[in-house]
């Protein structure tokens, strides 16, 4: 009886083991393809981001150049032409007074 049961079990186990190994191999191949695809996508995205960074850096450089040109154009003659006048008493500086205590007043 035990010989008969052992032969039946072996007949069931061999195909089951083969199918499990086949399924496991399929899962590994699918996972490998998935992760390789993700890595390729990340490489492409990194290249696109590098292009965007270069374009934005160029735009910032142009804007800084325009800002510097505008700053050098502002002088006393420019201010007088716009209606500004010099203060007869000289410059006045304003400072915020800091209190030593904290409050929850709004």
Detailed description of the structure:
With 106 residues, the protein is an all-alpha fold. The protein contains two helices and no strands. It has helices at 2-73, 76-81. The longest helix has 72 residues, at 2-73. The protein is elongated, with a radius of gyration of 39 Å. The model has no long low-confidence stretch (mean pLDDT 86).
DSSP strand tally = 0
Number of helices: 2
- Distance separating the two termini: 91 Å
Number of domains: 1
Order of helices and strands: HH
User: What's the multimeric state?
Assistant: single chain
Computed over alpha carbons, the radius of gyration is 39 Å
- How many strands, which pairing sense, and closed or not: the largest β-sheet? none
Q: Low-confidence segments, ≥5 residues, pLDDT <50?
A: none
On the 0-100 scale, what is the average pLDDT? 86
Structural category: mainly alpha
| Helicity, as a percent range | over 70%
DSSP strand content:
under 5%
Any idea what the shape is? elongated
Can you describe this structure in just a few lines?
This protein has 106 residues and is an all-alpha fold.
Features:
106 residues, mainly alpha, 2 helices
């Amino acid at each position: 009886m035990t010989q008969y049961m052992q032969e039946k079990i072996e007949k069931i186990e061999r195909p089951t083991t083969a199918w499990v190994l086949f399924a496991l191999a399929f899962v590994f191949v699918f996972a490998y393809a998935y992760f390789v695809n993700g890595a390729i996508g990340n490489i492409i995205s990194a290249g696109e981001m590098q292009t965007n960074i270069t374009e934005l850096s160029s735009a910032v450089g142009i804007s800084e150049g325009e800002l510097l040109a505008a700053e050098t154009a502002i002088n006393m003659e420019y201010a007088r032409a716009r209606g500004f006048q010099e203060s007869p008493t000289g410059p006045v500086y304003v400072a915020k007074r800091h209190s030593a205590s904290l409050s929850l007043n709004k």
